[in-house]
Amino acid sequence: MGIFGWIVLGLVAGLLARAVVPGSQAQGCLTTTAVGVLGALIGGAIASAADVGEIGSFYDSGTWAIAILGSILLLLVLRALSGRGRRR
User: Fold this and answer.
1) Based on the structure, what is the number of domains in the chain?
2) Has residue 85 got a pLDDT over 60?
3) What digits encode the pLDDT tens for the residues 43-78?
4) Confidence class for position 30, pLDDT limits 50, 70, 90
5) What does R_g of the chain's alpha carbons equal in angstroms?
6) Which domain holds residue 25?
7) How far apart are the first and last CA of the chain?
8) Can you tell me the distance from the alpha carbon of 42 to that of 47, in angstroms, rounded to the nearest whole number?
9) Which residues cross the membrane (predicted)?
10) CA–CA separation, 45 and 47 (whole Å)
11) CA distance linking residue 87 with residue 80, whole number of Å
12) Is there a domain that residue 88 lies in?
């Protein structure tokens, strides 16, 4: 997958992750794309280590699922580290 594919995958995965994770995220387009690309890499690493899949073709539904789940995981970790989303 080329750099353009990673950018598109990251943007879409980041947007979907932001839609799934509750709360207000004040992030721009570049941050959303970065979260998506990093989430895809994290998801791919976890999936490869668990031997359940890997990041492959841009058109593979497994690639998209891993990228989105990795992005959701990254957003949840970032939220926990920043202290946002805690109930008072």
Assistant:
1) 1
2) no
3) 878 887 887 766 667 677 777 888 888 888 888 888
4) confident
5) 13
6) 3-82
7) 44
8) 9
9) 62-81
10) 6
11) 12
12) no
Q: Which residues contact 13 (CB under 8 A, 6 or more apart)?
A: 36, 37, 39, 40, 64, 67, 68, 70, 71
Phi then psi for 21, rounded to 5 degrees?
-75, 125
The pTM of this model reads: 0.76
Give a yes or no: residue 7 inside a domain: yes
CA atoms of 47 and 54, how far apart (whole Å):
6
Rounded distance, CA 85 to CA 10, Å? Answer: 23
| Contact between residue 42 and residue 49 where contact means Cβ atoms under 8 Å apart | no
The overall average pLDDT reported for the chain is 78
Structure tokens at 72: 């959701």
What is d(CA 63, CA 14) in angstroms, rounded to the nearest whole number? Answer: 14
Domain contains 48: yes
